[in-house]
Design a protein that fits this description.
By secondary structure, this protein is an alpha+beta fold. The chain is about 20% helix and about 35% strand. It is built from 6 helices and 10 strands; from the N terminus they run βαββββββαααββαβα. Strands 1, 2, 3, 4, 5, 6, 7, 8, 9 and 10 form a 10-stranded antiparallel beta sheet that branches. The protein is globular, with a radius of gyration of 21 Å. The two termini are about 35 Å apart.
C-alpha cells in the first residue's frame, strides 16, 4: 500500500484514489513524459516537461546541468498523466475523461555519483527506446557533465484513476436519448523515418522496427 500523507490524500473524488504501488509503478513505466514542478532560484514556480525512468522505488528525471533550477537539492512535485479516453455525456457538466495519473512529492537529490548517474541515463534511454543504449554511442565525459539527473524517492505519492462510461445514466432513464459514450485515446508509434544523412535504404534496427 502507498503510505498516505496529508499531501497525497484526495479531497475530491476519493473513490478514484488507488493505493496499490504496482499501479503507481505501471503508470510511471508507461508514461513517456513527466512534468517536474519546482521553485526556481528567484522563488517563482516552474514546471518543466522532461523524460524520466523508474528504477525500483526511485524515479529519475534529467535536464541540462546548466539550468539553475536543477543545480541543487530541493522540494519538487513530479506528475504524469495517461489519457485513455474522452467521456462525452448527455450533460456538458458531466463530461469527463478516462485517465490514470500519478503525483510524486518529496525532496529531489542531484545525482553526483558517476555510476548512479550513468545507470540513470541508461534507464531513461531504455525506458523511451528499448535497445538503443546498446546500439548508440555512449555519452562521453563532456556530454555526461552537461546532463543533470535528479532522483526522487516514491515514498510520498498519490494515484488517481477514472475509467468507465459517462456518469449521468439517470438522464437516459428520464427519456434523454442523445448519444453519449467514450472516445478512446491511444498513443501509437509511427513508421521510423531514416535520418536523411544516411542512405535511403539503410536498414532500420530490429529494436526500432519492432516497436513501430
Amino acid at each position: 500500500m502507498l503510505s498516505p500523507t496529508p499531501r497525497t490524500q484526495l479531497r475530491r473524488k476519493r473513490d478514484r484514489q488507488q493505493d496499490d504501488p504496482t499501479t503507481l509503478h505501471a503508470i510511471l513505466d508507461e508514461a513517456l513524459v513527466c512534468h517536474l514542478g519546482l521553485v526556481d532560484p528567484d522563488g517563482a514556480p516552474l514546471v518543466l516537461p522532461t523524460m524520466h525512468a523508474r528504477v525500483g522505488d526511485v524515479v529519475y528525471a534529467h535536464g541540462s546541468s546548466g539550468a539553475a533550477s536543477l543545480a541543487r537539492d530541493g522540494q519538487v512535485c513530479l506528475t504524469v498523466t495517461l489519457l485513455d479516453g474522452l467521456v462525452l455525456a448527455r450533460s456538458v457538466f458531466a463530461h469527463s475523461a478516462n485517465y490514470r495519473s500519478a503525483v510524486v512529492r518529496g525532496r529531489a537529490r542531484r545525482v553526483t555519483d558517476p555510476d548512479e548517474h550513468l545507470r540513470a541515463l541508461e534507464a531513461i534511454v531504455e525506458h523511451l527506446t528499448p535497445g538503443q543504449w546498446s546500439h548508440a554511442r555512449r555519452p562521453d565525459r563532456k556530454e555526461t557533465a552537461a546532463t543533470a539527473v535528479l532522483a526522487l524517492d516514491l515514498h510520498e505519492a498519490s494515484v488517481k484513476v477514472r475509467q468507465g462510461p459517462p456518469g449521468d445514466p439517470e438522464l437516459v432513464a428520464a427519456g434523454d436519448t442523445r448519444w453519449a459514450g467514450v472516445v478512446p485515446v491511444h498513443t501509437v508509434l509511427g513508421v521510423p523515418q531514416t535520418c536523411p544523412a544516411l542512405p535511403a535504404d539503410a536498414p532500420v534496427p530490429a529494436h526500432v522496427a519492432d516497436r513501430a
